Amino acid sequence: MATIKDVAKRAGVSTTTVSHVINKTRFVAEETKASVWLAIKELSYSPSAVARSLKVNHTKSIGLLATSSESPYFAEIIQSIESCCYAKGYTLILCNTYNDLEKQQAYISMLAQKRVDGLLVMCSEYPEALLELLEGYRSIPMVVMDWGIPRRDFTDSIQDNAELGGYMATRYLIERGHRDIGAITGQLAKNTGGGRHRGFLRAMEEAKIAVHDEWIVLGDFEPESGYHAMHQILAQKQRPTAIFCGGDIMAMGAICAADEMGLRVPHDISVIGYDNVRNARYFTPALTTIHQPKERLGAMAIDMLLDKIINKREAPQTIEVRPQLVERRSVADGPFIDYRR
After folding, report:
1. Residue 315: which residues within 8 A CB-CB, separation 6 or more?
2. I want to staple 177 with a disulfide (CB 3.0 to 4.6 A). Which of 8, 24, 134, 336 is the partner?
3. Mean of all residue pLDDT scores within the chain
4. Per-residue confidence (pLDDT) for residue 54, from 0 to 100
């Protein structure tokens, strides 16, 4: 394997000149630069990333502390982050923690040792222990994504307005003439689950519609939980005419359960989801849902982080992402629709 000394010898220059050419740290005559790059090409020389990072004080790498890259929602955001990193010349180091504090501690320690230039945090839960852990690494530029309420002044944050999205979904069902409305929620302790459910409750209270506890079933954002929750709801003597699912993947399971019980969506029961995952339009029927701008979320996170890294910005910033309704074919008019609207 060629070394920097080999390149210098082939090009007829000093190793210091080769370093300046590679790192662009000093003016070098065009003819000399051409000789150095030709030698690099002929010798297939690859500079040591570690050595280079020590000289220029950055590694061109970003760490991502995530809950999981398996769910479609997180996967789409991670894909956007990776694409933005690649386009800007950064390497992304992905760490799936599954909300395990021990893993979070181990991974953030590893990322610090690798001297990442910045850290993105996308965990679905933020217990006090995790917040204290992150604060201990406040010297690393950091952006926290999918965080309901900012609680620390050492990091930028992006709020997803989960409560507003849940409110919008429920208001849409009410405006379509539904009054008997159930909900399949995500874990209520999480911002994504709890926030969306609070929006549901606010819309119901505002419209003075009674909430039936037997029609509210806890899920976990997986299709199996939506499937079993829908079975539980439809087993009641009185059934709702519409269901708000706190996640599209749970809605997929809920629609499957309704079909198995001989009910047609949306003719017999309407279903609205949340997230607008990439495959939502290919559900049967195509899913009406609340859109989360996942590509934009990833791009904004990278832009905020690079602003902190490159421009040394210290004042924390918070950006809000506003959800949007996407109408497709899984919601029909309910019995109380006002056709004069």
Report:
1. none
2. 336
3. 89
4. 45
